[in-house]
Amino acid sequence: MFIKKLYNDLDTLVDEAMAGSRLIADDAEKYSRVLPNSRITVRRDKYKKPKGLVKLVGGGGAGHEGPPGTFIRPGGFDGMTTGDVFAAPSARQLFRMIQEIDDGSPIIMNVARHAGDVLNSTLCKQLCEANGIDHVYLSIGGNDVASAPKERMNERRGSGGALSCSTVMAECGESVEEILRLAEKCNLRQRSYGVGIRPAIHPISGLPIMGDMPEDEIEMGIGVHGESSGKRIKLPRSRELAQIVLNILLEDMPVPSGEEIVFSLGGLGGMTWTELDIFYKDCYEILTYDYGLKIWRHRVGNAGTQELGGFTMSIGWPDDEIKKWMTTRIPIDNYPKD
Amino acid sequence: MVLEDLRRAVFAGADMIIERETELCSLDAFVGDGDHGVTVRKGYQKVKAAIEEDDPKTMGDLMMSAGMGLADTAGGAIGPILASMFLGFASAIMGKDELGVKDLADMFAAGLKRVQDLGGAQPGDCTMVDTLYPFVESLKNAETDDVKEALEAAAEKGFEGSEATRDMIPKLGRARNLAERAIGYIDAGSRSMYYFLKGFADNAVA
Q1: Which of A76, A153, A166, A260 has CA atoms 20 to 30 A from the CA of B32?
Q2: Cβ contact A123–B73 (<8 Å)
Q3: Per residue in A223-257, pLDDT tens?
Q4: Among A38, A53, A179, CA closest to A100
Q5: What proportion of chain A, given as a percentage, has pLDDT over 90?
Q6: Which residues of A touch B74 (CB under 8 A)?
Q7: pLDDT averaged over every residue in chain A
Q8: Is the ipTM of this complex over 0.90?
Q9: Partner B, chain A 122-141, Cβ-Cβ below 8 Å
Q10: CATH match for A190-323 among 1.10.10.60, 3.40.1190.20, 3.30.1180.20, 3.40.720.10
């Protein structure tokens, strides 16, 4: 299959992307290292979280690469690992990461609810227990409104998100129970919804993602890998689409007028900034003037599913406790001065 | 059964699957991706490779090696589910030097529980559980102390269970989307499970 993308070798595509991303991100080498012959990144010894504090790890498929950044650093995660394109890392790989990080303190695995991620993380926990590491906890999150009805909230798939407290809570020495409680609360107080506008090409198979979409239609309720919902509509104007999606989100989680929200608009990689600018403005105006909500924090970006045109929109409704953690700074004396 | 027997039985079960890769793929061709044979062949090759590399000295460690080997397979649900099954086997026989009929019933029951916990399948959902469940029930209710006799009788029940998936409507996995249209097809996962158990049963005693 001819693939009109830049690459050298499909077998090393994920590893080469990972290496490049680390070279672009200024502090990647300073704060973190990659375990030999692996796609596992952990903090360097000097920046390891002090013993006793809860460790946070995560993993997911490749192919979602965004702007290079250093996630494995003080104030961030303790370990992260990557699978193949759009495929979860294996349980063995997750286990190797945990073995490397384990210092006897509780470890939370953050998992986006996708079948492969949940299976392999659950199996990883079993591998840990079979090998005497009995302090691993799973925090599984998903709030995609399109993937399951409200009555089956605990089946909703992972997608975007707007609220997060775990990393700062862990640095501040909060207990594993408290961190898990807040993670669950954040998940319950946010909603996401995806829309697909233009197709993309899978970087390994060369096959189109959402390739059979008619020129004048878009798909409502897609997943972050372009998973189809089968629900297509004629391409509306930006303002009309903003109204439709905000209505879906706020019908599922009604937020009273006057409340403060966190709003996230994640272009999936193939949105132009012209589109995002216009679309964000429309969302802002509808949220402010029609719903009477205040945007407390907002985030707009464009990466996640190759060059797929489309977005995931998320609304979070932080209460005082969540706001407190989202505005807390990490303690400076956890780590050596540079 | 002692360590040596267990190793031979696991290898024989693995080989029986590896040899039937093509047949298992064609069973999966209508209902799934047509790659079930490839997935389980790769998985059980890892089982053998892990046991050969680790050279475990106890029966529990042997099943643990098998599980760790399977946990190395990425993509798809079958690898993790089988890995979890072997970890269940391992936990049930850890510390034992010899397995009788009762121990084997406990071991396979622990594996079945892991499969159900991780995969979410119940008997009748048209999955590997439809082979493993009657196999375990037969072993639990065995009236003989003879390992070979008990395992062979159980394998026969497992075969009947796999045959019965022909009339079932799939409740899980990709096959679920086909619903009634899957009737008339044997579930490939139930058949590969049968081959493992059959190879195991036939070679449990030298």
Answers
A1: A153
A2: no
A3: 888 888 889 999 999 999 999 999 999 999 999 99
A4: A38
A5: 89
A6: 83-84, 87-90, 93, 120
A7: 95
A8: no
A9: 122-124, 126-127, 130
A10: 3.30.1180.20
pTM: predicted TM-score of the whole model, two decimal places: 0.91
Side-chain-facing half-sphere of A23: CA atoms under 13 Å: 6
Cβ distance B75 to A124 less than 8 Å, yes or no, reads no
User: What's the CATH number of domain A10-189, 3.40.50.10170, 2.60.40.420, 3.40.50.10440, 3.20.20.70?
Assistant: 3.40.50.10440
Give A194-216 pLDDT, tens digit per residue. 999 999 999 998 988 988 889 99
**Pairing mode, strands A136-141 and A107-112:** parallel
Q: Determine contact: A83 vs chain B, CB below 8 A.
A: yes
User: Which residues have a Cβ under 8 Å from the Cβ of B127 and sit 6 or more positions away?
Assistant: B119, B121, B165, B170, B171, B172, B173, B187, B189, B190
Which one-letter DSSP state was computed for residue A289?
Answer: I
